[in-house]
Automatic annotation (TrEMBL):
The keyword Hydrolase does not apply. Keywords: Transferase. This is CaiB/BaiF CoA transferase family protein. One of its GO terms (molecular function) is transferase activity. The keyword Ribosomal protein does not apply.
Length: 413
């Protein structure tokens, strides 16, 4: 199939404005950009602070190549009325706006509900904040780690009670921000579907569609039944380390070369198969271990038996033995393992991308997959303001003389 006849990605023709910084809102717009939406990232003079985060090469953040991909960068000083006017003209020709300022921050800039409605009837506006746009703590400062703590995740990632005085470890990435970003992306998509459905019905547009995502609530929504268990039984679920609280055996077991291998034989059939593999038919035959509840009560004993087997083999040898036995298992991957994984490579989840500043880089691929109309990495993270002139002229309708005047006034860069 030629490039000319290639199917368009799912969100082709959708334009989204991002007024965000750090992680949550930019992550949401990156997901939508990967699926074909045109993302106009509004940056302050100096650019998004994430441009300086993480490992650097050639004077630039390597993470930014991914975090800012599939976006157009427009640098505008939103502290100046001319900057507000310029961004307003971009919003007027867009489908959605994603922002993660403090609650009320967008209105304080001059983009309150009524102004946005006037600019673009039917606009979808996704707000991402620490605690949400309403409620007694809405104005408190928050980052993803705050959402992880209040949403209950940081408690459950702690070490099992009584094992150490070390503080609860982080997941290792800003997962609270990313989860909130995913919910914001889902909200924008739902708003687009709603708007399209109403248009097909011939229903008159009834105003902007607001999406309200809180970091704390985004994390809490993932926390399985912990609130329900507490409400019904007064049960506070406790940290269990690398085990699964509700199923056994499932743990990270040491190998002879010091690596860890996840083994998840947490069904009755898999348990029997694993016990046969490790030569512990006695554990397979015991009546009290024939169901999951009994195995949970004897998890320490079962784990000790599995560990005695796992430590006889190097990690890769152990992994191969488990795969041959058809037991769910894996090495715990490092970045190097991810980069070399044939499954990731085959599905394009690790792919080589050309970056103007860095040359060829590895990028994570696009999720979800749309085999018939796939998304694409059209560009890596842009230089700050590299699209300012093109967006202001091609979308906002400014003449080149007007753009030059805005630059002389320090409104744009």
């Amino acid at each position: 199939m030629s490039a000319r006849s290639a199917p368009l990605p799912p969100l082709d023709g959708i334009r989204i404005v991002e007024i965000g910084h750090f992680i949550a809102a930019p992550f949401a717009s990156r997901i939508l950009g990967d699926l074909g939406a045109e993302i106009i990232k509004i940056e302050p003079p100096g650019g998004d602070p994430v441009r300086s985060w993480g490992a650097q090469a050639n004077g630039a953040s390597l993470w930014w190549s991914v975090h800012g991909r599939n976006k157009r960068s427009v640098v505008v000083d939103l502290k100046q009325p001319e900057g507000i006017e310029a961004v307003g003209r971009i919003i007027a020709r867009s489908d959605a706006l994603i922002e993660n300022l403090r609650p009320g921050g967008l209105a304080r800039l001059g983009f309150d509900h009524e102004r946005l409605q006037d600019l673009r009837p039917g606009l979808i506006v996704a707000h991402v904040s620490g605690y949400g746009q309403t409620g007694p703590t809405r104005d408190r400062a928050a980052f993803g780690v705050i959402g992880e703590a209040i949403g209950g995740l940081r408690y459950l990632t702690d070490h099992p009670p009584g094992t150490t005085d070390l503080p609860p470890p982080r997941v290792g990435i800003s997962i609270g921000d990313s989860i909130a970003g995913l919910y914001a992306a889902i909200g924008v998509l739902a708003g687009l579907v709603r708007r399209n459905h109403r248009a097909l019905q011939g229903t008159q547009n009834d105003g902007i569609c607001t999406v309200d995502v809180a970091l704390t609530e985004a994390v809490l929504s993932l926390m399985e039944g912990i609130v329900t268990e507490y409400g019904a039984l007064g049960l506070v679920r406790q940290p269990v380390g690398s085990r699964i609280a509700s199923a056994a055996p499932s743990n990270a077991y040491a190998s002879a070369d010091g690596r860890r291998v996840i083994i998840a034989a947490n069904s009755d059939l898999l348990y029997q198969r694993l016990m046969k593999l490790i030569g512990r038919e006695d554990l397979a035959a015991r009546p009290e271990l024939q169901n999951n509840a009994g195995r949970l009560d004897h998890a320490d004993e079962i784990d000790a038996a599995i560990s005695a087997f796992s430590c006889r083999f190097d990690a890769r040898q152990l992994a191969a033995i488990l795969v041959e036995a058809d037991i769910p298992s894996t090495l715990i991957y490092t970045a190097a393992d991810i980069a070399d994984d044939p499954q990731f490579r085959d599905r394009g989840m690790v792919r080589e991308v050309s970056d103007p500043r860095h040359g060829t880089l590895l990028h994570p691929g696009i999720v979800p997959h749309f085999p018939e109309c796939p998304g694409a990495i059209r560009n890596t993270g842009p230089e700050a303001g590299q699209d300012t002139d093109a967006v202001l002229s091609g979308i906002a309708g400014y003449s080149m003389d007007e753009i030059d005047q805005l630059r002389k006034q320090g409104v744009i860069a």
